Amino acid sequence: MNKSYKIDFEPVGLRGKCMPGISLLECARTLGVDLVNLCGGNGTCGQCIVQIIEGSVSCLTKTEENFLSPDQINQGYRLACKTIPLSDLKVSVPPDSLTTPQRTQVESMDLPVVPEPLVKMYDIEMTAPGSNDLCSDSRRLINRLKEQYNINVLSIDLDVLREMPVYLRDNNWKARAVLRENKIIALGCQDSRLAGIAFDIGTTKIAAYLLDLNTGRTLASKGMMNPQIKYGEDIIARLLYAQESQKQALHIREILSNTLNQIIGDLCSYAGLTNNDIFEIVVVCNTAIHHLFLGLPGKSLSLAPYIPVTDSELDIKAEKLGLKTAKGAYVHFLPNIAGYVGADHVAMLTALEILEQKGIVIALDIGTNTEICLLNKGSLTSLSCASGPAFEGAHVKFGMRAGQGAIERLRIENNKVIYKTIGGKPAKGFCGSGILDIFAWLYKAGIMDRTGKLTDNHPLIRKINGINHFVINIKDQDKSQCFEITFSQKDIREVQLAKGAVRTGIQALLKANNLTEKDIDKIFIAGAFGSYIDVKSAKTAGMLPNIPSNRFTQVGNAAGLGSRLALISRSRREQARYIARQVEYLELAVFPDFPEIFAKSMYLDS
Amino acid sequence: MNKSYKIDFEPVGLRGKCMPGISLLECARTLGVDLVNLCGGNGTCGQCIVQIIEGSVSCLTKTEENFLSPDQINQGYRLACKTIPLSDLKVSVPPDSLTTPQRTQVESMDLPVVPEPLVKMYDIEMTAPGSNDLCSDSRRLINRLKEQYNINVLSIDLDVLREMPVYLRDNNWKARAVLRENKIIALGCQDSRLAGIAFDIGTTKIAAYLLDLNTGRTLASKGMMNPQIKYGEDIIARLLYAQESQKQALHIREILSNTLNQIIGDLCSYAGLTNNDIFEIVVVCNTAIHHLFLGLPGKSLSLAPYIPVTDSELDIKAEKLGLKTAKGAYVHFLPNIAGYVGADHVAMLTALEILEQKGIVIALDIGTNTEICLLNKGSLTSLSCASGPAFEGAHVKFGMRAGQGAIERLRIENNKVIYKTIGGKPAKGFCGSGILDIFAWLYKAGIMDRTGKLTDNHPLIRKINGINHFVINIKDQDKSQCFEITFSQKDIREVQLAKGAVRTGIQALLKANNLTEKDIDKIFIAGAFGSYIDVKSAKTAGMLPNIPSNRFTQVGNAAGLGSRLALISRSRREQARYIARQVEYLELAVFPDFPEIFAKSMYLDS
């Protein structure tokens, strides 16, 4: 009875053996499948839904009957936490049951470059030393690399020197040398793969990609929350936390590196690799996360005029940052531009090949801070605007992150509200794209005027405590429960500030370049939120300029793509450096007419 | 009564304040004067002799009367451990009372180069950032270095970045940037000096020099025993010790780095500097010490054919080696040549400017291992011969290191033995130079034949346990005590092996170059032992070839000089690298006719 079962999770492609008696949720954890499980496997959240495709499992529980529709039950859907495998299984995981891909956008894309990694692996064979061949181990290796590959080795990592004599003799004078440019950083073993990880570390979320550096293929990807969030949703709070003491600065570094190590471990085990196969890491993030991670003091970054300690690209030993990789591996940080325009912006511009674009081009990534870049005749101007967390669900009563049950699409037809939630789950609130839709449709339906004021007399509007609220009645179909979620005049003002900030940034860039909206040839919208919005709603809401929709392109997680490009291509890394130095930074706070532009940007349909 | 006294130690030039009631030995320790004190200040070794020049001290003790002659007492000599200052003092320290300079040869020499250090310090002034000048701290610094000094900074140490924001603001945007080539490795403070330390780490002794990198001046020097000696006088024993476990390998590294830290601290406090003023370290040592210090496995080095892990020059962060210096400082290791021809040999050749020499030149440093180099028409051949520790006093019954009471000179005239001891102390045994004299004079006096056999019938020879012994009667003049020290036929054989090995090396080099002794234009004899020997005796003993004495030059601690040159001059460091790669290594063990050459070399007057 101690025979283990083979469990195959599709379409994520994770498979492996699990001991009998443990739940499918446990199996999933073991194999690195990140099932949503808000309740910790207690059967109270009903989120870890999977479909049994092949094989037999334990009987359906009462708990599951409560969460699953009869249709779902007929199709073999189960809650993973309540299901025990009784044979080998093939299990299908619906996208909504994964914590990861939902709206973090770590999905693999084919990379549009020929792999040209900074780190390379070379197999060589040497002759053993003897009394007529007394050359040192290191010189033997160096000479052979020169003879066989015409490489000039300039240095060897001390840790490599320390393991080299035993390694060479144990491997019969065959070696797999790992070079980073002209430095030998590691000695691989016979089955070691040359892999690297690209991290896109956001204020809220972390996206990570494990790449084969030889083929450029993305072997695995993973999303996770940034654990530093517990010290503040906004970055200033975290910078202040770190400034309070050395201990706190170290702690906020360590919780991040611990999470990164967890991700490294998960990605490696998913791809059948070990940490020792990771020879290079690229990190892109905003300037504040960059400083927190590197242990750079954040005081000048947290106070106007927000001066970063450094904006240069950096190569730091992974070991020095507490990351568990091959010993000689480095972490490459893409350059920053300013205190609030970080390497993630540089990575986005790199991924978009911004300098290859024609005409007047705008690229933006909307988040708590929105960074916007304008390309005009080969010159780049970037700025950052504090758009705030309204689109992440904060400061809006029924706002929520883009998780299950969030209204992501909404329209109003004949005074009826039609909406769609993520995962088709009962509506719990609005995520960013839904909020933008509400905004646009309240205006289009004549329920809200251009200034954002809700009308007093409308069936969808109700006064609560003297304040107008847009009210949506939610019916839980199966249980005929009925409740309401609302969007108040106060919520509208929050969103107006957020969308107004984004629009202000665009207008300021145009003005600084003596351009108008009509001149814009293309707008790239990057990032998780930007990828899911309805561009028409964004135009109606006045967040984005009212230009033809075919001039907009939603490009997904361009920063993540940029980080992967920098990981596998030296020339793209070089381009990132070049772009970063080309960008002229515009400080919005000191921009002339800022208040006037901002006021205008608050309007709808502007 | 709590007033402190000012104590001035001359000629070492160390002075400072000491609290009343503590002994002069304690004062000396506090001020960094290294008085010999084998007994730990108990008054039983009688070695910490000093002379009171000015001021008043506590009364003479019985102990001192036992150790000092009436003449010495009249001249104000005292034992420092038994003498308490009663006023400000001026104290003269005889050379023999210092642990340091005796025969370690760390004495300062003017260096024949213009300082051209790899590490330089630049004072710059920046303007503070403002809302119209948002450039990052690092770029501000980099730009200013470019403007003011036309330096292209390529990178900044992470630790520097971490301290930079506070530093720049606290110093009102003035900075003293310390660069190593194009990397900023530290930020100095207003009174920081740009200093470095050159270490010549021998198997037995360590010589250290503190240099001002701007002026090239040697500010202080110090000698100390290599603490690793407790794990074996010979280097193979230490390599084996380190191979036994990771823990032991770490331990033997740490006791060395602890001692080096002690030396760094002592040198700094002597020169009024702090560890943070030390921005560069150069280390020269033999290949085995090099491997032990760097934590490189020594197995292949301890077994024939003695393959080193690496022979390349290395730059390692001082921090990584546990050395306490400025945080960003590096340790530069000069390159090695072979398992038994190390960086100390390279340093010697560099100091001698070997490639600038004319004619056929031999340079050698005699020790437990003797490294010899031959220059012939611009090409260099080096080898190592295992001369053993006989000249260090080991394996010879009355052999001793070159300390007080060692017979360092000896001659035999009319069957009378005339000798001189180090420090004029009662003879306790022979040091290397004395042994060589005995050897030469026994032969010249006809007491020993060319093969090294002692005659049976001679007043200076006595059979003890059936073996002939050369006997010296020692009279302690003051106390009319009389005892004898001896040099037996067995001792002679030991010395024959030692001196024969050196001579074998010379002969093999000549033979490999198709030369004979007559062709030699110059022989440089380096090292502590080599500096004190009587060249005539060395020739008579057959250790050195019998060529005119004016072709010999005793050059002192050339390896130490080479280490200092490499510390303050990039081009001399570059030369060292070049020399190391020019040297062809000759493996004596596989040299044709080795046994024959060796046998011949054992003879005297050969």
UniProtKB/TrEMBL annotation, chains A, B:
Enumerate the InterPro entries for this protein: 2Fe-2S_ferredoxin-like_sf (IPR036010), 2Fe-2S_ferredoxin-type (IPR001041), ATPase_NBD (IPR043129), Beta-grasp_dom_sf (IPR012675), Corrinoid_activation_enz (IPR052911), Raco-like_middle (IPR041414), Raco-like_middle_sf (IPR042259), RACo_C (IPR027980)
Report domain 2Fe-2S ferredoxin-type positions: 5-97
GO-annotated molecular function: iron-sulfur cluster binding
Entries under Pfam families matching the protein? Fer2 (PF00111), RACo_C_ter (PF14574), RACo_linker (PF17650), Raco_middle (PF17651)
Q: What is the protein's given name?
A: RACo C-terminal domain-containing protein
